[in-house]
């Protein structure tokens, strides 16, 4: 069990009032590069805090896509494990980061490179927060990239809701100490229903945007491509989604269904109609089609005309839908390609 920085702080400074930790945490989100630079802390704390890690992730390798719009970092975490995190340009002066929540993943989705690794361990909230801090520092050091982090997506390695408490802690820390608001953070999940239920009544869960990896509104097809799916998953998800939107939905807060486009598997007109029907029964949902990025031999990406036709069927049924732009596939940084494998380095 890796002890959090917070826990280490309270052990090291048992008599310090609670607000001191908030000051420390605020310092972690500043542009300082070491504890010594945090002059907001007392000299006593600065002299004794050195055993707490300033950074819990160490860069091993950085790859940059040919067009310079996507940077991928391989970061080492405790236990000699590697994770990957990605920085993507979304518009001038603004970057989106894609963070990992686990080393590997237990969900085994057949089209996802992380799924093939199995789960090694969940990341701590410090390791999640430090991916953000790593990119903050990176942009600070690379002034030519001109910009700041405006969005965060939890779409890297792992299933965020299988690491609910640490992800929640990290989200709250980021929301508290950065200028990134709830509508600029998206947690993507395969749909862990007990955790989605918990979220509805959890006062401490920050209602950032949610994206659910649906991939098919036909139960048999979903079970085929998402092994953790089961017979009544879709009706249960539909029921949950209605209750979620009733409580938390508004003009700015919708749910997103992600849908990876797999040739001949889930990209037929029948599948599009089933998806439209499922979405329209729920309400404020948007669909994001993701062209499949190659991770193995079992699947192929749908053809551009198939994607176009799929999108047209959705739109003809008034489903708000978009196709995700593929970024960084030349450096294996696109959706589902993150595996942090040491062989690749
Ligand atoms: N475990 C989370 C985060 C996964 S990554 C989840 O399941 O949502 C974010 C998105 O990329 C998910 O929708 C995931 O299904 C999708 N994805 C995974 N592998 C992919 C691939 N090879 N090509 C395109 N999208 C992929």
From TrEMBL:
UniProt entry tagged with the keyword Ligase: no
InterPro entries recorded: Aldolase_TIM (IPR013785), Methyltransferase_A (IPR040072), rRNA_lsu_MTrfase_RlmN/Cfr (IPR004383), rSAM (IPR007197), rSAM_sf (IPR058240)
Key words, A-Z: 4Fe-4S, Cytoplasm, Iron, Iron-sulfur, Metal-binding, Methyltransferase, S-adenosyl-L-methionine, Transferase
Location of the Radical SAM core domain: 91-330
MF annotations from Gene Ontology: 4 iron, 4 sulfur cluster binding; metal ion binding; RNA methyltransferase activity
CDD domains: Radical_SAM
GO cellular component: a single term: cytoplasm
Gene3D superfamilies linked to this entry: Aldolase class I
Cofactor(s) of this protein: [4Fe-4S] cluster
Localization per record: Cytoplasm
GO biological process: rRNA base methylation; tRNA methylation
Top-rank taxon: Bacteria
Principal location: cytoplasm
Keyword Glycosyltransferase: no
Name of the protein: 23S rRNA (Adenine(2503)-C(2))-methyltransferase RlmN
Organism per entry: Candidatus Uhrbacteria bacterium CG10_big_fil_rev_8_21_14_0_10_48_16
